[in-house]
Amino acid sequence: MDDFHKITIEKQKGLKINNPTHYELIGQGVQGAVFRLSEDRCLKMYARERHCLREIEALNAGKDSSIVPKVFEVGENYIVMEFIKGQPLKDYLESLHSIPEPIAKQLIFIFKEMKRIGFTRIDASIRHLIVTDDGEIKVVDHVNSLEKQHPWPFLFFRSLTKLNLLDTFLNQLKEMDPELYWEWNKWMDKSKN
Fold first, then answer.
1. Which residue of 20, 54, 100, 192 sits 20 to 30 Å from the alpha carbon of 159, by its own alpha carbon?
2. CATH code assigned at 63
3. What region holds the RIO-type domain (predicted)?
């Protein structure tokens, strides 16, 4: 597995990825790219060391939580972590056109868990929420979890609005956790002004 060190990533206009290995590129974003190393491990490589350090810090903060991937190895510009097998929550919800109660409960738990861990960004893009084959939800991409200040899940709510499921989730939230519902409702009202 050590030949993954041959992969290089540079930040130019977007990312310039040089992958002379057999490892499959399975995703890329603004800060880096993810490669599948094995059935249960993946490699996230960064163009800039500071992004790697920020994600390592967040993953360490959440190392005892079930919502973040396990870390196996870290380097100057990479993290080898648990590969989360599943599908993005967006695809999952689009196929159902609804939010099953167990999923709504997990989502509420995830956002409360982010706060408990100490994440200052109590939000996750819907594409960073993965529904595993076992029906569990994990959160990936934590580069900004300790950097940005988002005390309510506005990106997630925006995605649910596009899926026409925000009202469904808010009704579920109001029933399952009224206190959190009213707290987030205040933030939603402030964002409208």
1. 54
2. 3.30.200.20
3. 48-157
Is residue 17 classed as helix, strand or coil in its secondary structure?
strand
Q: DSSP alpha helices (H): ranges in the chain? A: 49-61, 89-96, 101-117, 154-162, 166-176, 178-192
Do 146 and 91 share a structural domain?
yes
User: 72-113, pLDDT tens digit by residue?
Assistant: 999 989 999 999 999 999 999 999 999 999 999 999 999 999
> Residues 77, 93: one domain?
no
Instruction: Look at the chain and report how many structural domains it folds into.
Output: 2
Q: Kindly report, residue by residue over 120-138, the tens digit of the pLDDT.
A: 888 888 999 999 989 999 9
Residue for token pair 């249960």: 40
